[in-house]
TrEMBL record:
One of its GO terms (cellular component) is cytosol. One of its GO terms (biological process) is cytokinin biosynthetic process. Signal peptide: none annotated. SUPFAM superfamilies: Acyl-CoA N-acyltransferases (Nat), MCP/YpsA-like. This is N-acetyltransferase domain-containing protein. It comes from Corynebacterium halotolerans YIM 70093 = DSM 44683. GO terms for molecular function: acyltransferase activity, transferring groups other than amino-acyl groups; hydrolase activity, hydrolyzing N-glycosyl compounds.
Length: 348
């Protein structure tokens, strides 16, 4: 179906529009320097973006003026520069110089977003270098900087989107430096996605690392800490907000009330206690947000196996184990939160 707008016509992109995509790709990649020719279309990086396959979920639109193509946009499931995860397509846009600054790029993005929401995409990514004026348009449309330099992400989450994430983790660093790396990566991911960190308010161990990472990227932070730990000078002084409570039980309840989702990094007894409380609250229907395990270096493998044994022995329903998000990296955990569906209450 075509769409008419003044002297412009918008139509769906087709696989047969290869020549249009080829010219657009060459102009996009040669924006800052003449480097690529048609001979380069069969090799990366251009060859990644040139195919268009609706069967794999690709969508796109072409803008015509007087019967001539003056712009196009495609969202493709390809391993391009802006790739974040296999279920998030990458957007690329081209508008001819004669038709720029006329709102065409914004209208193309709106059409792609309509397609994406209808298809249930968890998000839409793109690659854009620093200094490109198109970044202003992308920010107006809701894209934010991703952890990967030069990559932006727009989340297309559920009707009740995730805005804050409670992070449970160790108050020590653990035996592997990879644990601190994961905590740092999680903090950077939260800040890049505009998600508020809800955590235990301390400045020690992995707790301090994840908070420092969010603060360094100017993200939002809320710490919840018992007064006895404040008195021991263990509170993080650089947070946007610090809630001081009287007991550990109050701390857990406050964090649960503030958070839309929950992630456990490696940790000890306290981390396990907090994790199992929210898992239980999910079964009772008191929490409806996703719960994830950042499985750095396979840390959570024994726990997942124990939960699987509980399912096999009839003590846990399989749907709750299926609903638990387990992934190796923070980016993967957060990507799988998009489009997550609550498993429902145990007693229904």
């Amino acid at each position: 179906m075509t769409r008419e707008s003044a002297d412009l016509t918008f139509r769906p992109m087709e696989a047969g529009d290869r020549d249009l995509r080829a010219e657009a790709l060459l102009r996009n990649f040669n924006r800052t320097a003449e480097r690529f020719t048609h001979a380069d279309l069969d090799a990366p990086p251009l060859s990644v973006y040139l195919p268009f396959d609706p069967a794999r979920g690709d969508v796109g639109h072409v803008v015509l003026s007087g019967g001539k193509a003056v712009g196009m946009a495609a969202a493709v499931f390809a391993q391009g520069y802006g790739h974040i995860s296999d279920d998030i397509p990458e957007l690329w846009i081209h508008v001819t110089a004669s038709h720029r600054n006329a709102g065409i790029g914004g209208r193309l993005i709106d059409l792609i977003l309509q397609d994406g929401r209808a298809a249930g995409w968890p998000g839409l990514s793109l690659s854009v270098e620093d200094g490109n004026p198109a970044r202003r348009l992308y920010r107006r449309k809701g894209f934010t900087d991703h952890l990967t330099p030069g990559v932006m992400l727009l989340q297309l989450g559920p009707e009740h989107p995730i805005r804050s994430v409670a992070v449970y983790c160790g108050s020590s660093y653990g035996a592997r430096e990879e644990y601190a790396d994961a905590a740092r990566d999680l903090g950077h991911e939260l800040a890049a996605r505009g998600l508020t960190l809800i955590y235990g308010g301390g400045d020690v161990g992995l707790m301090g690392t994840v908070a420092d990472a969010v603060v360094d990227r100017r993200g939002e932070t809320i710490g919840v800490i018992p007064r006895q730990l404040v008195d021991r000078e263990m509170a993080h002084r650089g947070l946007g907000r610090l809630d001081v409570v009287e007991t550990m039980a109050e701390r857990k309840t406050r964090m649960e009330d503030l958070a839309d989702a929950f992630i456990a990094l490696p940790g000890g007894a306290g981390t396990l206690e907090e994790l199992f409380e929210v898992l239980t609250m999910q079964q009772l229907g008191h929490l409806t947000g996703p719960i994830g395990l950042c499985n750095t270096e396979g840390f959570w493998d024994p726990l997942v196996e124990m939960l699987r044994r509980a399912v096999d022995e009839g003590f846990l329903r399989g749907k709750y184990l299926d609903a638990l998000v387990v992934a190796d990296t923070p980016a993967e955990v957060l990507a799988r939160f998009d489009g997550w569906t609550a498993p429902g209450r145990k007693w229904d």
